Amino acid sequence: MAFQLPLQLRLPKPGASFDNYCCQNNPLAYPLLQQLLKAELSPACAYLWGEHGVGKTHLLQAACDSCSRMGQTPVYLPLEQADMLSPDVLDELDQLDLVCLDNVDQVAGDSDWEFALFKLFNQLHDQAVPLLLSASKPVHQAAWQAADLSSRFNSGQHLAIKALPSEAFASVLEKHATAKGLQLKDKVSQFLIQRSQGQLEQLLQDLETLDYAALADKRRLSLNFVKKTLEQT
Amino acid sequence: MTQALWNACLKQLELDLSAQEFNTWIRPLHLHHSEQNAEQSWHLLAPNRFVLEWVKTHFFQRIESLLTELNHGKSISLALQVGSRPQGRKSRHKTKPRPSSENLSFNFDTPAAKAKTHRPKQRQSTTHFTSPSNDVCLAPKPNRLNPRYESPLNPRYTFNNFVTGQSNQLAHAASQQALHHGGFNPLFLYGGVGLGKTHLMHAVGHSLEQQQPDSRIVYLHSERFVSEMVKALQERRIDEFKQYYRSVDVLLIDDIQFLLGKMRSQEEFFHTFNALMEGHQQIIITCDRTPGALSGLEERLRSRLASGLSIKVDAPSVDTRVDIVNTKAEQAKLKLTDDVSLFVAENVSPNVRELEGALHRLVANARLMNQHIDLNFAQQILDDFIQTHQEKAWTVAEIQQQVASYFNISIQELLSKSRSRQIVRPRQIALTLAKELTQENLPALGRAFGGKDRSTVLHSCRVVHQFQNKSPKDYQDYLNLMENFRQN
Amino acid sequence: MYLETSRQVLLTPLKMITGIVERKQTSAILGNALIRVDNQELQLCATDSELELTYRIPIDSSLDGNGETTLPAFKLFDICRASDDQTQIQIHQEADNNYAQVKMGRSRFTLASLPAADFPIGGDMEADLSFEIPQQVLKNLLHKTQFAMAQYDVRYYLNGLLFDLRPEQLKVVATDGHRLALIEYGISDLCDEPRQVIIPRKAILELSRVLADNDEPVKISLNPQQIQFDLGNITLRSQLIEGRFPAYDGVLPNSINAEIKLPVVQFKQALNRMAILSDDKQKNVRLKLQENRLELNSHSSEQRQETAEENLDIEYQGDYFEIGFNIQYLQEVLGVIDDEHIIFQFSGIDSSSLIQAENNSDFARYVIMPMRL
Prior knowledge:
In chain A, 42% of the residues lie in helices and 11% in strands. Chain A is α/β, with parallel strands linked by helices and 233 residues long. Chain A folds into 2 domains: 29-160, P-loop containing nucleotide triphosphate hydrolases (Rossmann fold, 3-Layer(aba) Sandwich); 166-232, Orthogonal Bundle (Helicase, Ruva Protein, domain 3). Chain A is elongated. The two termini of chain A are 18 Å apart. Chain B has 4 domains: 1-91 and 101-132, DnaA, N-terminal domain (GMP Synthetase, Chain A, domain 3); 140-313, 3-Layer(aba) Sandwich (Rossmann fold), CATH 3.40.50.300; 318-391, Helicase, Ruva Protein, domain 3, CATH 1.10.8; 396-487, DnaA protein, C-terminal DNA-binding domain (Chromosomal Replication Initiator Protein Dnaa, Chain: A, Orthogonal Bundle). In chain B, the strands form 2 sheets. In chain B, strands 5-6-7-4-8 form a 5-stranded parallel sheet, sandwiched between helices. Chains in contact: A-B, A-C, B-C. At the A-B interface, helix 1, helix 2, strand 3, helix 3 and helix 4 of A face helix 1, helix 2, helix 3, helix 5 and helix 9 of B.
């Protein structure tokens, strides 16, 4: 059957900010990071941990956004991509105003990275530059070799980030759909949320799929269309 | 104007790039414009070479053409440079001094902290963008000759707030002696992570600074010594570097074990060390192990380090830990009930830094949730922290890794059939630790160590425990390692 | 209010403003046209509450009385339409009366009026940016792009035209998600910071109708919610579509693997013939590129398949390949090309293709996604 391919149109996504952070289940995240950014924490280090997909990256990037708005210069480094980077990327970051390291535990056990992190931690500490870390587990559960590094990570604030409750999925889904210019009927939302089985990422992934399919077919998102489309994936 | 242009450029790039690209590579950049003799120059400053190279290959053209467009088509030729952003942060520091480090309270400063605020931030990178324009500049502190070569003393680390107990009273006494001429030189403090060595070292620094305001007291981490030396070599100012360290009055070097395996740095440090010793200048060094256990350090340097007084800082007992917790809490204007202090002291960690970390967390959470700190609350907040301490089970591989890195040998060497003493000792210690810290049975342990049989394993354990009488130095290594594992 | 004028003065303005009025309205007054006499000037205005079109017509004041009212737009237009050019029309509205008298020749109409005070038109617009371009230039920019707008897409932002204001140029973009039209026009010192506004489809269609083919300027004014076009005696004001437009730079093919030049007329005619046998919902054509020859073919989907085939001579030395397109998308692009030849560039059989006029005098580019056949 003939199939019209759609253009790869990408809507500019609104960047992560505290304004678009859903704080259900994590009421402390925002106040804690505000204190960090306003240099009210000492040591100026916060360690956020939680499972994949609970919104740690959003918080780190929101902190960068907030820092930029104050006219300062932050940096965000995704250490799950350490393979593409080099420990050298951490050099001289104490000149900046905020350093965010996402998935820092991904480099645990790599001595070059650990050493670079240790060096960075000390430099930032000397300069009282805020450091914001995220990881999937508490410090001690990651395979850090250097005890002096992990104890430094443990010297600051810790916060366990929890997944958004599934009651909040409907409003998140609606927000994302609206941002794409899509409207979802209640029964479609319910179907998608049920299908996601509590995984927000799955939910948003499904929405992406539907967005593409609807653009190709110039269709509205009826329940039938949604079911048929998602069955194929 | 420049800032407006850059902001407009950022806005566009934020729309065009993925959030990650933007936050990682674009946000840390800074646009700088200068005009001299009617010649315009535009510089894009990146914090380090790696970022610079990445930006050059991935985004540079785009940024340049975007800037030109935003400049209404008037071409902007842009030069990428490693450098730091001027103004923004400086002004922040002027208006709002950061609270001192290790200050447990958030906005209620302790008198001690008020009396002495954190030193203003100093630029330390060697690769500063130095331009004739005056908004990129490096304001040298009058009493700091060259801030790039040293770190500020932490104002919270004073003798006043050092809690002594059996585990550290010797080190405390020796440190105080260092304040008087005729103290031990060098003073070598060693022991596990986070037990207060750095605190003592800074305390000496502060006291000396008060006694002799004109003396030059220099504190830095040994890793910094290495990287600054490397840079000095690259930038052909090694003489300045040598001159600097050889002319200080008091040298405080943290974590000397980072010199292991770095021959050129050891050499340089050795000469610095000698020059200072000849001039009877005080040197204090901290380390995670005894001087004798610093294998990978040149023999002559090792013996020099051991020539003064070496004192071990032990993990504090529970009683001392309770004292520490209470003292730190008092500093934060916080009264903890006995059961809470005891709970924290017993459950968190023997590591003082983490003990403080735990207290920070309690205070922050209590404030954020507007709650009183009782035992229940403490248990709830420190839950993940404590569980991990109790549940941390070491794997054989982790133990091998840590032991190998402690002795500065490779895993391959550790598991080899080598009979050299340099390898055999670490292997025996690793086997013993593996037996004592894991649930693995003897055959499994033997296999994990490259096919040893069970009698070899048992033999190793016996040998290691005989070190206690026969070879105290080796036994110390075993104890140090065990302590490190226990702490984590 | 009293107005007397000839039918010919009113006809065109009424025709244009009734284009704004929806056949079904949410409130009765939106079905009316505003008629206001103010000294030397007659104002005619209609709105659908998002889009508003106003005509200002100079009149002979000796015959008129100042005042205003609103009357059913379509009825008024139909009354005018049903007579000759020279016929005089008189409209009389007494204050405090719910009816207006309309006389035309020997006919008399009593029309239900609604108070002008209730007519929902905005006052003067506060603009934060404005610029001028010649009417025919703007008309061309719209003409070259508007066909690619989406019509009833759920993605509201596609049902309109993007004005992408850059510091030194205006880019106009339309896309329905399958194809995209982009045209650029240089305007010096247009703005300092880039700014994007999306103008609803209906406003664009109405604007195209009122723009003249001359160099008289149209003044375009913007604020965050609205855009206004001033063409001397005509003013069109529209709400903007909220939200963002997709990043369109990314859909332009970034590597061209094949390129051919085609004569517009022959290609258009060949496509018309191919369309005869393609009976899919979306009529499609298969293009086969081979050495110096372009083969087009299509077929019906019925059980007894019928086929159409045609060859065009081209200059092409590359590898053989086949690619499918929606015929309508090609036809619509060819329909707005002024040149004799187009350059058709392909980046792959399932990635976007680019069409430009050979001389590309007005910097228009067309991106079309292929079909998988």
